[in-house]
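Good morning N.,

You mentioned wanting to compare the apo and holo forms, so I went ahead and generated the holo version with KG4. This is what I fed in:
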Amino acid sequence: MHPALSSSSGLIPTSGLILGIESSCDETGAAVVRSGQDVLSNAIASQIRTHAPYGGVVPELASREHLQNIVPVVRAALEQAGCAFADLDAIAVTEGPGLAGALLVGVMYAKGLAFALNKPLIAVNHLEGHIHAVLLEAKKQGRLLALPTLALVVSGGHTHLYLAEETRGTWHYKNIGKTVDDAAGEAFDKVAKLLGLGYPGGPWIDWLAQHGDPRAVPFGPITVKQKPYRAQQKQIPRLLFSFSGLKTAVLRYVQTHEMAPRIAARRVALADIPDAKPSDALPLCDTETLNLIASFQRAVVGDLARKTFAAAETFHTASIVVSGGVAANRELRQHFLAEGRSRALPVIFPSLELSTDNAAMIAAAAWPKFVAGDVATEILTAEPSLSLG
Ligand code: KG4
Ligand code: ZN
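and this is what came out, ligand included:
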């Protein structure tokens, strides 16, 4: 039994400090969070430069970078928080979902650390972490989130809808929607790559879309042909997302409008600019390209909003939270907030810093588990396909 473990009702906090560790994809993160709400530090080592030449995450390279970065990132997190290992109440780590080799680095490091320090280890689902990015900031601001809430987790790997509820300090999730093919972030990344823009594509499309006409290319509503999946309860078709058809429609538009030479020229020009930013691409994009980008983004955002608000209505949720990398998208934020206002339904986003992958959200999600004594055992391993609810 851990020294901090009480006999029946979980762990007794001494400092309330949890060190969170995140390594599920291409960011190595470490953060110290007090009592699930005070972010004392949130250190991150991004691998964007490593993967950018490939236009996507290369799993083998990601694992190697995590291995190099994890010790300095944890040190930086402790230093910024002004605390030592001995001050921590627990170590929390992302166990999945994500890339196997990437997850293993964080899990093995966290296990070793917990063992050496004789501190409890808490395993966190990355998706739950994204939801807690919103909850931690709401708690910090003293805002009570109306429950049940509908959580849209929209990132490079997921486009999932969850009903989330808390009973006596424990959070429960029920999956009520998912993508049948590409995640929304994946579609942003693939379309950006197709158009010769930088990686990851979301921020490039977000920025360039402001300069195009979103009505120029009428993509039409996204319909999902597959049968609705039946997981734990009856599903309805409108809760299924699909973005691969839209990506193909962009490809067809590019072909029929003979855009390939312009794309190739843009790719070459951007490759010559060190640390190219989305604004560098503006003079390299003609009106037709900017209109295509804006129309694509409008189609994705419109579809996410339509289905999310329909789900909120069907399941009578009292609020909506949106998190994950795509939640950083400007048009998505504006659209969801306006729609929420018109329906008197609170819609809450994390700050931009906590929208994309980070370890503060992992430490925050670990807090209720710590208090409940929900501690990982020594056989904890990486779970690349871990689901939530
Ligand atoms: O949550 P995240 O950092 O990692 C995953 O768990 O996948 O999300 C990364 C994804 C990428 O696909 C990236 O292109 C997208 O989030 N993203 C955006 C924006 N910022 C990041 N997509 C649209 N607009 C943005 N501003
Ligand atoms: Zn994520």
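The CA atoms of residues 219 and 299 lie 7 Å apart.

Happy to go through it together on a call whenever suits you.

Best,
F.
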